């Protein structure tokens, strides 16, 4: 798969087949992604791969906490703005409604929305889960590096016929996840990611949210070399 095709065809997968993923395939994806660039090559990423009983135990504990223990949920970092404003608010709404419409969830059906949100905590049934940690003393530059690493994983997965869903939804449950994986609190959970084979029959996997056109986010300055 060429890079352009990989970029254009990758999408967040929210329904996976139960088909297991060979350890060698997960390893191959990580082995490719480790070539992601990072400032001064410090490679700030630390990945925990969860499968089988460990995966299931985390899913169960987090699902339980999502229902019964609101005090066990808080963001270790700020992902979103504390006050939403345009143009981001409209984009966020379009994304949410696009997804819910495809799933047949009506506006205002909070129970159905919550049930869909909680599907995050089974990795959308992906058999492999990845958790991404960073040392808490590393700053925004290293987070920039991390984003490139995450995208590298997703593109490498596509090239191996695998699908992914990056999931910040896990971050508020960082305490539970760190306990289960024996990760000290000097490391912060950035996000999780489901990894597996996409269910081609699931309508939710057809969701392809719009993108801005190049001209909407790019300013050109000076004379170009060509027409
Ligand atoms: C860092 C990060 C965290 C995300 N967290 C979630 C999540 O918790 N749950 C989810 O369903 N999608 C999550 N997404 C997926 C985004 O909604 C998705 O990337 C966006 O809508 C664009 O769609 P696409 O990935 O299919 O191109 C996340 C994406 C990123 C990059």
Question: What's the short version?
Answer:
The chain has 227 residues and is α+β, with helices and mostly antiparallel strands. Helices cover 40% and strands 12% of the residues. The structure holds flavin mononucleotide.
Write up this protein.
The mean pLDDT is 96. This protein is 40% helix and 12% strand. The protein has eight helices and four strands. The chain has a single domain (3-81, 121-209), classed as NADH Oxidase (3-Layer(aba) Sandwich). The longest helix has 20 residues, at 140-159. With 227 residues, the chain is an alpha+beta fold. α1 (3-9) packs across α6 and α2 packs across α6. It has helices spanning 3-9, 23-33, 52-68, 88-102, 110-118, 140-159, 174-181, 214-217, and strands spanning 46-50, 128-135, 163-167, 187-196. It is globular. It has a four-stranded antiparallel β-sheet with strand order 1-2-4-3, sandwiched between helices. The structure holds flavin mononucleotide. Residues 11-12, 14, 95, 120, 165-169, 191, 209 line the site of flavin mononucleotide. Flavin mononucleotide (FMN) is lined by residues 11-12, 14, 95, 120, 165-169, 191, 209.
Rounded mean pLDDT is 96
Structural class: alpha+beta
- From the 3D structure, determine the CATH topology: NADH Oxidase
Into which percentage range does the β-strand content fall? 5-15%
What's the shape? globular
Which regions have little confidence, pLDDT < 50, spanning 5+ residues?
Answer: none
What is the name of the CATH superfamily?
A: NADH Oxidase
Radius of gyration: 19 Å
Number of helices: 8
Instruction: Give, in order, the helices and strands.
Output: HHEHHHEHEHEH
> How are the strands of the largest sheet arranged?
1-2-4-3
Could you name the CATH class? Alpha Beta
